[in-house]
From TrEMBL:
Annotated S-S bridges: 4-31
Organism, scientific name: Eudyptes chrysocome (Western rockhopper penguin)
Gene responsible for this protein: DCBLD1_0
CDD domains reported for this sequence: CUB, FA58C
Protein name, entry field: Discoidin, CUB and LCCL domain-containing protein 1
GO CC terms in record: plasma membrane
């Protein structure tokens, strides 16, 4: 309906919100979400925020949850009649969520997330609950869809995150989990450095942060690798660069300048690679020399002197240089479009979840 805001629903977890959240939700609007878990499991719903204008019996705005299998209902809820606990444990694999509003003056609306009973570490399933202080070590299950929920990330993936992080968004930013699926992470508190520079990664921008000397480290589960990323991954050597075309420029002095494929290395000084102007379907190819496990990519524009950069791209890979597969990410339904750079000098990271095993990457 016209009251639906940010919504991402998967069989194992998801996030949903009213329209305009966390701004005021519209008048005379409605939304219905149907949540379905795999057979044999039950749904657990975390109330991240229920800020609907108060009224008698929640008549102006309300949240109602119906469990058709058990024939029970929860609510209606609004600001003066909220849920008794932040986590609702159902005995059903299907729940219908109903949101309605009439004329009202205030209220942020609602934010809910859910997971299934097969996932441990549910105590902080809601993205908005993640700003609380954390114990020295905790297991957190992050629902799918938290990337686009309002909130700031402090720190960057190469140096860790503070305990004021929105933890699930930080995990997406760091490449521990994919936003379209969610997943479990382990959080441990360890001594670290005090200054974190901002960074753009996996569609999220962190903020510069300086305070104290203790902060959390994020661990994917399962797996031996931990973040910061520098602790578990190395830059791969590129044996050769190739491209669909490249630009031969004649500068103001009449000199030729070749924006050739070999200039695409991240640390190359001066101008970079650029496709021939007007070319369609341009690609850059990296030959890694042998099959490697590729966990992510970092892109950068040409330089401040040459204000050129790529704003979005797809990735394809091959083990033999003949048969190519376009990367589709953890969802596997559509070719993934990666968000690239917004300027010519900043670096942008994108993680491959799951990783790519290939010799050639385009």
């Amino acid at each position: 309906g016209d009251g639906c805001g940010h919504t991402l629903l998967t069989p194992h977890s998801g996030t949903l919100s009213s329209k305009n959240y966390p701004g005021t939700y519209p008048n005379h609007t409605a939304c219905r979400w149907r949540l379905r878990a795999p057979p044999g499991t039950s749904l657990l719903l975390a109330f991240g925020d229920v800020d609907l204008e108060p009224s008698e019996r929640c008549a102006r705005s309300s949240l109602l949850l119906a469990d058709p299998q058990a024939g029970t209902a929860y609510g209606p809820y609004c600001r003066n009649a909220g849920p008794a606990a932040p986590l609702l444990v159902t005995n059903s694999s299907a729940v219908t969520v109903l949101f309605n509003s009439t004329s009202h003056r205030s209220g942020r609306g609602l934010l809910l997330s859910y997971a299934t009973s097969q996932h441990p570490g549910r105590g902080e399933a809601s993205p908005r609950d993640a700003e609380t202080h954390t114990p020295p070590r905790a297991v957190v299950y992050c629902p799918a869809g938290c990337k686009d929920i309002d909130g700031d990330i402090w720190g960057n993936p190469s140096q860790g995150y503070r305990d004021t992080s929105v933890l699930c968004k930080a995990a997406v930013h760091a490449g521990v989990i994919a936003d379209e699926l969610g997943g479990q992470v382990t959080l441990s508190r360890e001594k670290g450095i005090t200054l974190y520079e901002s960074a753009f990664a996996n569609g999220l921008h962190s903020k510069r942060w300086a305070r104290g000397s203790w902060g959390p480290w994020l661990h994917p589960a399962p797996g031996p690798c931990r973040l910061p990323l520098s602790a578990c991954s190395d830059a791969l050597e590129v044996a050769a660069f190739n491209a669909s075309s490249w630009w031969y420029e004649v500068d103001a002095l009449g000199q030729d300048r070749a924006w050739a494929a070999k200039r695409a290395a991240l640390g190359a000084a001066g101008h970079s690679w650029a496709a021939e102007p007007g070319s369609e379907g341009a690609w850059l190819e990296l030959d890694l020399g042998t099959r490697r496990n590729v966990t992510g990519i970092i892109t950068k524009g040409s330089s401040e002197r040459y204000d050129y950069y790529v704003t979005s791209y797809r990735v394809s890979s091959s083990r033999d240089g003949k048969n190519w597969r376009t990367y589709r990410g953890s969802g596997g339904q559509e070719d993934k479009v990666f968000e690239g750079n917004a300027d010519s000098h900043g670096e942008v990271s994108n993680a491959f979840i799951p990783p790519i095993v290939a010799r050639y990457v385009r």
